[in-house]
Amino acid sequence: AVPVALVSGLSRAAAIGVLVKGGGALETLAKVRVLVVDKTGTLTHGTARLASARAFAPFGEPEALRLAASLDQASGHPIARALVEEARRRGLALSQPTKVIEHPGEGVSGWVERRHVLVGGPRLMRMHDVRFPPADGAGHAGATTATVLVAVDGMPAAVLELADPLRTDGGRALSALRACGIERVVLATGDRRAVAEALVAGLPVDAVAADLDPAAKTGAVAAERRNGPVMMVGDGVNDAPALASADLGVALGARGAAAAAEAADVVLLVDSLAPLPEAVRIARRARAIAL
Ligand code: ADP
Ligand code: MG
């Protein structure tokens, strides 16, 4: 039987919007020492705005955005939602995509109006042998927190820079977690290193692992386990394997992917990292009483 102290810990956690899937998960929550945190949609809001775009002839910016957003209607990724919203704001007429393939952590491919469209990161473009001209300078380094490449019929069509700001409570949550016994914080992202490092400058983050596909994210979690029990926090389909492999997987449930919530041991029911430090304290108290 689950000790009474654990049961009451579970209900205290639930009351602050943290769903802990059982007494075992609550005990692990009390023991975690390392935090591996995802970037897009977890440390950032994932409600990105298009900050700048560079289109390549013969495509203009509106056409590249229209094709990308048409395809991204089929994706639940935060970047996809942002592109669709931006296209709607601009009054662009979107078409239904067909034969859509979602590549978790890489992007999306499919057909829009008889054109083959790719929307995603550099790995997706390499997979399809699309070569982009080298980037001219750092772009909008500070504000830019995601870069999305668009290719049409095997040709580069646009580079979209999205500003996806840090959650207002993101830095505070990391500091509060450190104050309650998390000794090491690692950012693990599918995005590029420059973008990830710019985002966490000034935050209590010890290491950045970038350019990770879902398998590499799982590898990053495995590597951190030598530093202590690992809690992984993420929101996306691409985080699900890493969440399952961590000592404790924590999913952002409010806007995150269902696959992440299923793979996790803990689901944050609010769209915020803020209750996590308090949940750790609740778990520690419950464990101290139960022992
Ligand atoms: P993180 O690991 O930080 O949450 P992801 O792995 O989800 O980030 O995404 C990494 C990169 O993959 C994004 O910056 C973007 O370039 C690309 N990407 C992934 N999915 C999509 C999508 N549906 N639409 C556009 N770009 C995508
Ligand atoms: Mg994410």
From TrEMBL:
<protein>
    <recommendedName>
        <fullName>P-type Zn(2+) transporter</fullName>
    </recommendedName>
</protein>
<comment type="similarity">
    <text>Belongs to the cation transport ATPase (P-type) (TC 3.A.3) family. Type IB subfamily.</text>
</comment>
